[in-house]
Design a protein that fits this description.
2 copies of one chain form a homodimer. Chain A is α/β, with parallel strands linked by helices. The first copy, chain A, folds into 3 domains: about 60 residues, Winged helix-like DNA-binding domain superfamily/Winged helix DNA-binding domain (Arc Repressor Mutant, subunit A, Orthogonal Bundle); about 130 residues, 2-Layer Sandwich (Nucleotidyltransferase, domain 5), CATH 3.30.420; about 170 residues, ATPase, nucleotide binding domain (Nucleotidyltransferase, domain 5). Chain A has 14 helices and 15 strands. In chain A, strands 6-5-4-7-10 form a 5-stranded mixed β-sheet, sandwiched between helices. In chain A, strands 13-12-11-14-15 form a 5-stranded mixed β-sheet, with helices on both faces. Chain A has a 3-stranded antiparallel β-sheet with strand order 1-3-2. Chain A is globular. Chains A and B meet through strand 12, helix 11 and helix 13 of A and strand 12, helix 11 and helix 13 of B. The first copy, chain A, binds a DNA duplex through helix 3. Chains A, B: Keywords: Membrane, Transmembrane, Transmembrane helix. Chains A, B: Pfam families: ROK (PF00480). Chains A, B: This is ROK family transcriptional regulator.
Chain lengths: ~400, ~400
Amino acid sequence: MKRVALRPENAHQARLLHLLQDGPRSRAELGDVVELSRSKLAVEVGRLTELGLIEEAGLAASRGGRRAAVVRLSQRLRFAAIDIGATSVDVAVTGGDLEILAHAAEPCDVRDGPDAVLSVALEALGKLRSRGIATELHGVGVGVPGPVSFRDGFPVAPPIMPGWDRYPVRDVLAQQLGCPALIDNDVNIMALGEMHAGVAKTVDDFLLVKIGTGIGCGIVVDGEIYRGVSGCAGDIGHIRVNDDGPACSCGNTGCLEAYFGGAALARQAEEAARSGASGHLAERLAQAGRLTAEDVGTAAAAGDAVAIAIIRDGGRRVGQVLAGLVSFFNPGLVVIAGGLAGLGHVLLAEIRSVVYRRSLPLATGNLPITLAELGDTCGVVGAAKLISSHVFSH
Amino acid sequence: MKRVALRPENAHQARLLHLLQDGPRSRAELGDVVELSRSKLAVEVGRLTELGLIEEAGLAASRGGRRAAVVRLSQRLRFAAIDIGATSVDVAVTGGDLEILAHAAEPCDVRDGPDAVLSVALEALGKLRSRGIATELHGVGVGVPGPVSFRDGFPVAPPIMPGWDRYPVRDVLAQQLGCPALIDNDVNIMALGEMHAGVAKTVDDFLLVKIGTGIGCGIVVDGEIYRGVSGCAGDIGHIRVNDDGPACSCGNTGCLEAYFGGAALARQAEEAARSGASGHLAERLAQAGRLTAEDVGTAAAAGDAVAIAIIRDGGRRVGQVLAGLVSFFNPGLVVIAGGLAGLGHVLLAEIRSVVYRRSLPLATGNLPITLAELGDTCGVVGAAKLISSHVFSH
DNA sequence: ACAGTTTGTCCTCTCCGTGGAAAAAGATTA
DNA sequence: TAATCTTTTTCCACGGAGAGGACAAACTGT
């Protein structure tokens, strides 16, 4: 069996691969889209076939003449995606078009360190592959919940990932799996996911705000992830909301995360439960011994007024920060993502209300603020997109 | 006299022109920098000479062999730059290398509307040109103090420019002067200026914050101005600093401009003068009948404690907003520019202190915050850069 | 069966760039 | 002053790549 070559040879081939990622096409259709002569196109398609990156896929229906020969990405192409969260690892295997072929989520604490977490991920990936789905991998994309030096391929001073600082995740995985690897921040990964298959398909400049254990923001400029000079752009969790706000783990006071991070929500919920303000939460506290952000979500979904008020208050804080960022960045779309997606509508309404009121009218004039479309799979799709873009480029 | 053609014919020529903008070079030197064969390079240089865009400039000193023939941008190339401020218009004529050949500043109220202001600018420009400096113009760049739709070439809903909304500045000037024209926001223009000849020469991602009548921010991503989807990116004057702050002209409360804009400074100064807190300011008020932001500046420069306190307080507010933006954008440099440049050190110290304390350590680790290097000429150099980049591109 | 359409392949012609060779112009040394 | 070495520039021939036309293949509809 011929080994699939790693890379296209030139920019034309890269362009063709990206086009074919959106589905099979006939040579004639490709010729309509790409500004290449028929002969040149035939040559490049031939080369890509020779490289094993694309293959024939039968004949299309006739449009009144000779039936077109359809080409598609090689069905043997396989990308792996690893989305490392605070308390779990999502692993997936996709084909060349990033369609998910297999998916698994393993509970796993990121604080156990890179060795433990990566071996859980590799084992899960091994199980998926052993189903005969992927004999060979052509790339692996990784997302981690903290700042990353994209250039160097490792996390840098990640607050919730002790032991990961400068651990060469990219190179270790590339060596272990014998294929190209890339690592990026989890919000950037999600932004890529929504750009490839979600709400951001047609937008070039947008923000994706993820609200979870921490609060982060993916920045897309001209269709590309913007990472900043140190790779920590979008780290908005510690932007000041108020001087006289609660103390934050970062040492300052009044940070956004001190109002609406996972820990802050849990604290507010426990207070509400103890003071007797919320029956739902008190009951849950009695059951579980302690409360988490998720409990606030379920209570709110069940209609608990206090939980809804907590979320609404948090949404207002996020909205305040976001209003400033919208004025500054003037995006074409804002996507809200993260664990609280289920009760998104309360949150969304509050965020919208603040942003539309406090941002520059010119910036909000035609600014949709929506929830993420992709659910659990957003991260892994984005991770696959990250590495596929790299492999499919020259 | 042969007319200088408008544009290079291909990307190679554009590249050569941009290289020559930094000074004359011999063909051999160009060959070392550009990845072109000697023959190809000779052809392109020949074409550019034929087009009248470049010309021979004698022989370089020998380096042990035949003396190299130096080429430079045509000495007949002329760009015009118009920097429209709130109360004055700066006009300049530059050569192809953006060196300023003539410069004039005319007092002029932007509120008089586009017809009045543009005729002042055109008249001033005419005077400069009549000195025999510029028989022919190859482009004109314009900066205005308000949001601009760069694509359409006109201001959009500019708050301090009544009558300018959607007035087709670009097309009117292009027609009047018979050359290509471009219009952009004044902060973007200044960012271009500092990038071409100031502190930002070696930085690809940075912010330029201008503090003047309004407060605005130029955003540079990967060496290019980022304008946002509506062209109003960087409009940070109305970002919320505090909920219970002073009322702002925009209708909200606690905006940055309500603390530290031109009007806010004047108001605080008059209060200080009336209450007798500041002798300097009271004296000035008695003289002039009213106070402006500039008076605060001169008082502070003279050592007036109240004025310094006002500036320090404003610097803190700017720092608070900037701290958030630094965490979000993770720039490689922050440049502070604007009318208060003279007393920059107090302001700068305050801004630095807040940003370094409140932003993400990873983002501030290697982040210089400096004053703009270019003074009065920053705007016009940037405007010239804007149009020259356009004319020199394909 | 034949005309019209669409698709794919082949072939030739032209253009462009590479790289070598030679020429030009000057420095250095005998 | 002549000869040799360096550096720069021009000239030229060869090779490769792409554009576009011609033709063949495959299919529809009359």
